[in-house]
User: Which sequence fits this backbone?
């Protein structure tokens, strides 16, 4: 009986539908862990980039020189650097037109920065929706596999004259594996989603604060010039 209740034996002898549920949950878990490690790397890099750029921005250097340095970085500029680059580029472009009012210049730069901010947030939030979906649906998918497996186990009991524990135990055990797999897939996804959502929210707040502070600086420069 011990060998009959081994994990591999139970999975191999489960009904095709339960095996399909288990395979789906394993695949979801593998993809989730891949995305978890990817988001950890991306968010860590975003925090370091924000710290580095804030230090450069508030060092008191010339904004034009900073813009040229960021512009030379091309696609490597992300986060605050990308927002700064979009705002200063639009500010400089509109400033060349003497017919544009100072407030219109600032508002144009602000709109460009909001577009860049939205693009940055989309990049940070990438894959979070999948983690949320796995976290919310995996337990129910596992429960479905369990219910189906137990139902098949009891249907099989109807074909025997005397029901014993040795007959019903394997069917119930293989069914419960689906629930365990559902929880195994869901728990890391939920934890990662909550953690990364908080990290993204913190970065979003930092980006918004920078955008507002930089807008104030551009407003002063627009009226001075």
Assistant:
């Amino acid at each position: 009986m011990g060998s009959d209740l081994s994990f591999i034996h139970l999975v191999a002898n489960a009904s095709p539908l339960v095996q399909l549920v288990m395979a789906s949950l394993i695949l979801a878990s593998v993809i989730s862990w891949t995305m978890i490690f990817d988001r950890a790397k991306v968010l860590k890099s975003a925090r370091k980039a924000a710290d580095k750029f804030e230090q450069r921005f508030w060092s008191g250097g010339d904004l034009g020189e900073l813009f040229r340095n960021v512009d030379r970085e091309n696609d490597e500029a992300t986060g605050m650097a990308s927002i700064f680059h979009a705002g200063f580029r639009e500010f400089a472009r509109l400033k060349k037109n003497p017919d544009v009012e100072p407030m219109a210049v600032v508002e144009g730069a602000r709109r460009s920065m909001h577009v860049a901010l939205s693009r940055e947030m989309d990049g940070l939030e990438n894959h979070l929706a999948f983690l949320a979906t796995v976290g919310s649906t995996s337990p129910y998918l596992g429960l479905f596999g369990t219910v189906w497996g137990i139902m098949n186990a009891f249907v099989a009991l109807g074909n025997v004259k005397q029901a014993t524990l040795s007959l019903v135990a394997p069917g119930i055990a293989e069914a419960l594996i689906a629930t365990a797999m559902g929880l195994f897939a869901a728990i890391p996804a939920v934890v990662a989603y909550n953690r990364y959502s908080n990290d993204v929210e913190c970065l979003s707040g930092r980006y918004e604060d920078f955008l507002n502070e930089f807008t104030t600086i551009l407003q002063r420069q627009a009226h001075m010039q």
In short: The chain has a mean pLDDT of 86. Residues 7-224 form one domain.
